[in-house]
Amino acid sequence: MGFHLFPIITFLMASLVATNNAELSPQIYWKSLLPETPMPKAITSLLHPTGLLNEKFTSVDYEGDGTDVNVGGGNGGVSVGAGKRGKPVHVGVGYSPFDYVYAATETQLHHDPNVALFFLEETLRHGSQINLHFTKPSNLPSFIPRRLADSIPFASTKAKEIFKKLSIKPDSDDAKSMLNTIVSCEKPAISGEEKQCVNSLESMVDFCTSKIGKNVAAVSTEVSKESVLQKYTVTKGVKKLGEKEGVVCHLQNYPYAVFYCHKTETIETYYVPLEGADGSRVKAIAVCHTNTLGWNPKHLAFQVLKVEPGTLPICHFLPEDHVVWVPK
């Protein structure tokens, strides 16, 4: 579900210049802490050329001073095999297969049994074939500077204030989607994980480096072009990245970029080159969860793969707008 776009109200550049003088831009902040870590495409695609804004905006009252600052609206293709964000199997309102406490509904389970959102680790062998549908993100939200992001409430108890600041109608689908994101962020982490929803690139860098250090790689799936549901073959070059621990950050439904990040010591991360039946190529990132005892027993993965929690590693490819951080 995409966020409705609103007219641009006067944008006062002087205010943003003052903000920039007071703090580093997101790109410079990244380079200052991670000089040896290239930004993955999932990050750069959310950065406006000026480091501030996207091309599509909604208005925010910055710190209550009457200054209108514009932040990106919209959302991208969410998942391998599930089409755009908000369509069944992947996301219904209030459900994401990347939130492991939720149970899948019958609609999500039976929408398209050929779509392999989740798979077993043995599928990552060279020559294996899997039916996939890669989507290209569209109407992506933008990162906004941390100072601005921190001035906007992000709590279910402040929902009315949030909707007012972002010019969202409280009874709209956008409001419901935003509230679902906030509520999901407020839920406690499952056993063995640490989580945080980050509302700026600077906050993502701080959270991830505080958990696994600064000698890290940040990687994301890269899709050359959007495809139809088709058979993909695992080609030569599958590579394991890191060892056991990592931080996975999933882009959420929100008017500006918010990521649900969770650190775990029970994942295996792989770079997986794929070739589609139509000749298209994908540089895919796959994550395999080696301990699923804390997941909902009725999670989509268990129902599709016919396995029990805690038995076999559960793997999935990451959408193009999600990021995995792993130690080098």
UniProtKB/TrEMBL annotation:
<dbReference type="InterPro" id="IPR004873">
    <property type="entry name" value="BURP_dom"/>
</dbReference>
<feature type="domain" description="BURP">
    <location>
        <begin position="118"/>
        <end position="328"/>
    </location>
</feature>
<feature type="signal peptide">
    <location>
        <begin position="1"/>
        <end position="22"/>
    </location>
</feature>
<protein>
    <submittedName>
        <fullName>BURP domain protein RD22 isoform X1</fullName>
    </submittedName>
</protein>
<dbReference type="Pfam" id="PF03181">
    <property type="entry name" value="BURP"/>
</dbReference>
<dbReference type="InterPro" id="IPR044816">
    <property type="entry name" value="BURP"/>
</dbReference>
<keyword id="KW-0732">Signal</keyword>
